């Protein structure tokens, strides 16, 4: 069953907030355009954080994400697209 992009984004942000101990309003400061520009590295997550984030994403969305696809993600927008495309098989 297809999932709405806003639902994907909200669930992804919830995972990030939980794993990285971010304030609940952290992502509200970004518009859709800001989401395109926020680099993953700006979240200051280490390798263990990303391992836990990816595991949480796979559990939350019941998907498997290939490492080579994750490596191509540079922004939050890229990551949301990856999840969306994986769930909705675009």
Domain count: 1
Which descriptor suits the 3D outline?
A: globular
Question: Percent of residues in beta strands?
Answer: under 5%
The assigned CATH architecture is Orthogonal Bundle
Radius of gyration: 12 Å
Main β sheet profile? none
CATH topology: Non-ribosomal Peptide Synthetase Peptidyl Carrier Protein, Chain A
By CATH's scheme, which homologous superfamily applies?
A: ACP-like
What is the helix/strand order?
HHHHH
Kindly state the percentage of residues in helix. Answer: 55-70%
The DSSP helix count reads 5
The CATH top-level class label = Mainly Alpha
Uncertain stretches of 5 or more adjacent residues: none
Describe the 3D structure.
The chain is mainly alpha-helical and 90 residues long. It has one domain: Orthogonal Bundle (Non-ribosomal Peptide Synthetase Peptidyl Carrier Protein, Chain A), CATH 1.10.1200.10. 61% of the residues lie in helices and 0% in strands. It has helices at residues 5-20, 32-37, 47-61, 67-71, 76-88. Helix 1 runs antiparallel to helix 3. The longest helix is centred in the first third of the chain and has 16 residues, at 5-20. The protein is globular and about 30 Å long. The mean pLDDT is 87.
């Amino acid at each position: 069953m297809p999932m709405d992009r806003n639902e994907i984004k909200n669930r992804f942000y919830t995972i990030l907030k939980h794993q990285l101990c971010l304030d609940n309003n952290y992502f509200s400061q970004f518009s859709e355009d800001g989401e395109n520009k926020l680099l993953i590295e700006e979240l200051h997550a280490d390798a263990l954080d990303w391992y836990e984030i990816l595991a949480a994403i796979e559990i939350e969305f019941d998907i498997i994400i290939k490492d080579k696809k994750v490596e191509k993600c540079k922004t939050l927008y890229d990551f949301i697209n990856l999840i969306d495309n994986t769930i909705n098989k675009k």
